[in-house]
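step: validate -> pass
step: tokenize input -> pass
step: predict -> running
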Amino acid sequence: MAKIRWTSEAEKWLREIYDYIAQDNENAAQRVVAGIYNKAQILKDFPGAGYKYRSETEGEIRILLYGHYRITYLIRSEELIDILGVFHGAMEIERYLKILA
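step: predict -> pass
step: emit ->
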């Protein structure tokens, strides 16, 4: 079973998603953030669940979908996965991954 680490950037984006949705509906914001977090937990047992985005020297970057969101993660080893970010599907992901990888 792999360990999942959330980068500070990923945690920041998750808070921003919560804050944005909570402006209209705090309960919905809680559900969405919990859903994203819970979806990422499947990576503990199934790290290859997302589709391959690209390979880096640090490992493989993959994307797991949850509703309109893309959970972007790096498989560092069979034992360690870093969540790099959570992006809305409408965002230009490449611009953000250049910074992260």
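step: describe -> The two ends are 24 Å apart (CA to CA).
step: cleanup -> pass
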